[in-house]
Design brief:
50% of the residues lie in helices and 9% in strands. It is α+β, with helices and mostly antiparallel strands. A five-stranded mixed beta sheet has the order 3-2-1-4-5, covered by helices on one side. Strand 4 and strand 5 form a beta hairpin. The longest helix has 21 residues, at 131-151. It is globular. The protein starts with a helix and ends in a 5-residue tail after the last helix.
Length: 213
């Protein structure tokens, strides 16, 4: 193998880097990358200090200061679960939604999970929230999960049928949060969460983040 070929081979083996925090929403991108079979490395972020394990400032990677952030082998960094998960689905069609409008239905679902469910958890993670504010958040999340359950075919395993998409990875993390915070989860979504937990890639991601044995 000549020198140029060796360099090209080495470049092909360079991994993506996912910046994450255990149990945070970055778990969705972590799961999706495993499902896609991507080669990637993990960089753990302390969200309180915004630092990496090697002492570097995470804000030098993502000025927003929160996870996830996905760094590509050319140095470009993509942030926000909606963008990262869409990129993964674009690269790996098996994780995309089916049909002529599948890409847009997937974006629609990711946007709903992000803006209507994910955002609603904020009072539950804030020490300054009152008991009333926390209960209102739980009620709002339960209502939106019920909406999703009603619009999901009960015979389907996942949101878009029997094949998992990146949207299921995102919803799964929200369902873990709901369970942890005592939010009522509809039976159809509970079954979806159980199906996700049974996937080897999901167990691997949870193990990597110290959330499973």
């Amino acid at each position: 193998m000549n020198y140029v070929a060796l360099i090209l081979k080495q470049r092909s083996l360079i991994m993506l880097i996912l910046y994450y925090s255990p149990g945070a929403c970055s778990l969705a991108s972590h799961i999706a990358l495993h499902e896609a079979g991507e080669k990637f490395d993990l960089a753990k972020v302390d969200l309180k200090t915004h630092t990496l394990e090697d002492g570097r400032s995470f804000k030098d990677i993502n000025p927003k200061g929160y996870v996830p952030a996905l760094q590509f082998d050319n140095g470009d960094v993509l942030t926000e679960n909606v963008a990262i998960l869409t990129k993964i689905a674009d690269r790996h069609s098996t994780l995309a939604a089916p049909g002529e409008y599948g890409r847009y239905r997937l974006l629609e679902m990711l946007a709903f999970i992000s803006s209507e469910i994910h955002k609603s958890f904020k009072p539950l993670f804030s020490a300054s929230s009152t008991a009333e504010e926390k209960q209102a958040a739980k009620d709002a999340i339960a209502k939106r999960l019920e909406f999703l359950a009603k619009h999901k075919q009960t015979s389907d395993t996942y949101l878009f049928g029997d094949n998992m998409t990146v949207a299921d990875a995102y919803l799964f993390v929200m369902l873990l949060w709901a369970e942890k915070n005592g939010v009522k989860v509809p039976d159809t979504l509970r079954k979806l969460a159980e199906a996700m937990k049974a996937r080897p890639t999901v167990h691997l991601a949870l193990k990597h983040e110290g959330l499973a044995a």
